[in-house]
Amino acid sequence: MSAAPTVTPSGSGVFARTRARITARTLRTDRWWLPPLLTTLGLAAFVGYATVRSFVRTAYWVPEYHYLTPFYSPCVSASCVPGSSHFGVWVGELPMWIPLGFVVLPFLLGFRLTCYYYRKAYYRSVWLSPPACAVAEPHTSYSGETRLPLIIQNTHRYFFYFALVVTLVNSYDAITAFHGASGGFGFGLGNLVLLINVTLLWGYTLSCHSCRHIVGGRLKNFSAHPVRYWYWTQISKLNTRHMALAWTTLGTLAFTDFYVMLVASDTISDLRFID
Question: What pTM did the predictor assign?
């Protein structure tokens, strides 16, 4: 066990002057470090995969079935392959250091980074504040989210509105993908993958704490607003699954992109039900 850091007059947390003097970081003997480690590995795996796939510019569009990976949607530059620009071409050729999904990626990153659940996850696992119950954190002071850079976390409610628009775009992509190889209506395994992904994305977005507050957070009299109260109760039920949806959607986003990549690169053939 490492020794406790030196206590300073401005110290807070378990090493503050008013707390009991325990030199050990923790008296726990179980594997308390395992959940933070797994959380860090999980987040790092997704960030690494998503970063690579966002910049490679290959195998992101299946022209036969109109499958477009969510990492490249919407694709609105002249660098996009023909057919993948569902919303038209807004800008010219992009240099390689700019991802083709540049329109929404910053907002999606901001929405996830400032998410209440993800804050808890990376505060505890990466920043170790605190890493586990009854385990001292390595920091001797705490200012909360009152100064830079953490004060930016308060922009989450605004990123939520952008996330709604992005989810609508993903929904449009999923509907457009009902396309057959010879034209007209088509339905394959890729359509199921896209639909499951966008359904879970709606669940994650609408279960957001900001959405719950927008729907009914300022109501003082529920009986006077029965419709908003009903929506608030439904969002509240969904909100209890926000953590599960936060992790599930990371998995479905990566899997959806991976499936589209396999089909687009002719590594596998899409299983078609109607073509």
Answer: 0.88
CB 89 within 8 A of CB 76: yes
- Residue 246's alpha-carbon distances to 12, 51, 194, in angstroms, are 31, 18, 17
Instruction: List alpha helices for 114-180, DSSP H.
Output: 116-125, 156-176
Rounded to an integer, what distance in angstroms lies between the CA atom of residue 59 and that of residue 264? 5
Residues 6+ apart with CB under 8 A from 48: none
What gap in Å lies between CA 102 and CA 100, rounded to an integer?
A: 5
* pLDDT tens column, 90-126: 999 999 999 999 999 999 999 999 999 999 999 999 9
Query: CB of 55 within 8 A of CB of 105?
Result: no
Integer angstrom CA distances of residue 130 from 7, 121, 142, 147:
17, 10, 11, 19
